[in-house]
Write a structure and sequence with these properties.
about 290 residues; alpha+beta; Beta-Lactamase; Alpha-Beta Plaits; 2 domains; 4-stranded antiparallel β-sheet; about 35% helix
């Protein structure tokens, strides 16, 4: 946050009043709480929660929310937003707002209507806007299994998928498939690929709309559970275990935090913890097998 520009409420009011005649929308938002902020003349700030995305007539946060990405990354993010027959260019710039209780991170959203119809004209049945949306989806999709990929994980997109409010609660479940290498070696890579697709389908069918299934690579998968309670994580892990084992045996590990901070270090720590617990289960299973043979 040290590199972010700081504004007092009066400075920000003056900046917004200067920009409003130039752009279609200029507003301050708190993307973590999904709230639009209003700067009052007396220097106070009022909040209108759960309206950030309604400027686009949507029921929940945009899947390509640049404001949450700007807040997490600490740098400006941009996008095109396509709503019916209109195209908007959105700039999301993270700032610090100086309040009596201390500095508060916020994001200034600047929205401009784009009149270029080339983005909407269809060619071979698809507009450029539709092609751009498809391209974005492909950036975060594992080509083989169609679940999310490591890039989706590292950019923290799992934190706000379908969520109105970013929660500090986060459950992480890791699994790998016990027989994947043997299937690859004996039946071939096509059989191994089909096994991965089947497991991905099972996982995807059994998680919630705000949860994310991610293929880390090889036969390792992550399930990210934002907003999940501590007691829900082991229960979900066990439900997924039973479902996956209708397809193939797998080892599971999980962990939980109630105060997740969106840093690479914190993410790595949680993934490593889930990975460690998965291998502890693997070692216990191997020890039991040796004991009875």
């Amino acid at each position: 946050m040290d590199g972010l520009q700081r504004y007092t409420v009066s400075q920000m009011r003056e900046t917004i009043s200067y920009l409003l005649p130039i752009f279609d929308v200029v507003r301050l938002v708190d993307p973590r709480d999904t709230a639009v902020l209003t700067l009052e003349a007396d220097g106070t700030v009022s909040r209108e929660p759960y309206t950030c995305f309604r400027v686009w007539n949507k029921d929940c946060r945009c899947g390509n929310c640049t404001s949450i990405q700007a807040a997490l990354d600490g740098c400006q993010r941009t996008k095109y937003e396509f709503i019916q027959e209109n195209v908007f260019y959105v700039v999301s710039r993270p700032l610090l707002l100086a309040l009596p209780e201390g500095e508060t991170p916020v994001v200034m959203e600047i929205v401009s209507h784009v009149s270029d119809q080339l983005l909407l004209e269809k060619e071979h049945g698809k507009s450029l806007a539709e092609r751009l949306a498809e391209t974005r989806e492909m950036l975060y999709q594992d080509e083989l299994t169609k679940v999310y990929n490591r890039r989706y994980l590292n950019e923290f997109n799992f934190l706000h998928k379908g969520m109105k409010r970013v929660s500090g609660k986060l459950g992480v479940i890791m699994l790998d498939l016990r027989q994947f290498k043997r299937i690859n070696d004996t039946l071939g890579h096509l059989a191994g690929d089909q096994l991965l697709r089947n497991v991905a389908d099972v996982l995807r069918a059994r998680v919630g709309s705000t949860d994310s299934v991610i293929r880390l690579g090889g036969d390792e998968f992550l399930v990210m559970l934002p907003g999940c309670g501590e007691d829900e994580v082991p229960r979900t892990a066990e439900e997924l275990r039973r479902a996956v084992e209708t397809v193939t045996p797998a080892d599971f590990g999980y962990t939980y935090t109630s105060g997740f901070q969106a840093t690479q270090e914190e993410l790595d720590r949680l993934v490593d913890e889930a990975d460690r617990r998965m291998y502890e289960e693997k070692r216990r299973r191997t020890a039991r097998y040796r004991e009875y043979t």
